[in-house]
């Protein structure tokens, strides 16, 4: 049985998108279970997000390997096992656990921040979060704490702020969110 979080993400059962997310989730759980030597049922699903990566590495490149430069659609699945969070990226019948590299903490942080942006946009547009497609966040440095989205009349600390540029798509429209390592802000007000 899928955990409650996963069940929430699959509320419109029967649609192609949700069936793809369910298959991706099961493949991600089986892959991680095999790597950790535990039962798939012992792995909790935190989030499942439709994503696109700029190459066949699925956002988890291995040092010294080259990958075809082709946009690769799939799902980013965050799983939890033994008190630790794992990011597993899935495309078709291929699943890659993003761990063992210096990028791993950033991948997990980026996924968490993308979920915050997705939830915010869903609330603003009054739609279900699963109706929003997430492109994998790109690391970014902002010149100040406005995160590149200054509001008139506000002043911001003039310090370089690391974070992510997060692109979302809903109803054929693109939306941009900027983040530091803790929060996200929409840079263009979505139309409701």
Would you write up a description of this structure?
Helix content is 26%, strand content 32%. The protein has 192 residues and is α+β, with helices and mostly antiparallel strands. The protein has 2 domains: 4-101, no CATH class; 107-186, no CATH class. The longest helix is centred in the middle third of the chain and has 22 residues, at 104-125. The chain is globular. Residues 1-15 have low confidence and may be disordered.
Element pattern in H and E = HHEEEEHEEEE
Oligomer class: single chain
Number of helices: 3
Shape by Cα distribution: globular
Major beta sheet summary: 4 strands, antiparallel
- Radius of gyration, CA atoms, in whole angstroms: 17 Å
Structural category is alpha+beta
Q: Strand portion, in percent?
A: 25-35%
Main features:
26% helix; 192 residues; 4-stranded antiparallel beta sheet; disordered N terminus; alpha+beta; 2 domains
Helix-strand layout with pairing:
Elements: H1 4-9, H2 16-36, E1 44-53, E2 72-81, E3 84-91, E4 94-97, H3 104-125, E5 133-142, E6 161-170, E7 173-179, E8 184-186
Antiparallel strand pairs: 1-2, 2-3, 3-4, 5-6, 6-7, 7-8
């Amino acid at each position: 049985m899928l955990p409650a979080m996963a069940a929430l993400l699959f509320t419109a059962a029967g649609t192609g998108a949700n069936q793809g997310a369910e298959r991706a989730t099961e493949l991600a759980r089986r892959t991680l279970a095999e790597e950790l030597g535990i039962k798939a049922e012992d792995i909790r699903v935190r989030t499942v997000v439709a994503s696109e990566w700029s190459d066949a590495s699925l956002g988890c490149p291995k040092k010294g390997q080259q990958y075809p430069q082709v946009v690769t659609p799939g799902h980013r699945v965050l799983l939890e096992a033994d008190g630790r969070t794992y990011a597993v990226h899935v495309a078709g019948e291929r699943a890659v656990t993003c761990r063992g590299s210096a990028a791993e903490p950033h991948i997990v942080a980026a996924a968490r921040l993308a979920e915050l942006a997705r939830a915010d946009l869903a609330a603003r547009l009054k739609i279900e979060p699963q109706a929003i497609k997430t492109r994998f966040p790109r690391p970014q440095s902002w010149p100040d704490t406005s995160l590149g989205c200054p509001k008139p009349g506000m002043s911001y600390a003039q310090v370089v702020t690391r974070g992510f540029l997060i692109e979302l798509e809903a109803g054929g429209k693109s939306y941009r969110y900027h983040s530091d390592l803790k929060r996200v802000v929409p840079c263009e007000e979505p139309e409701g």
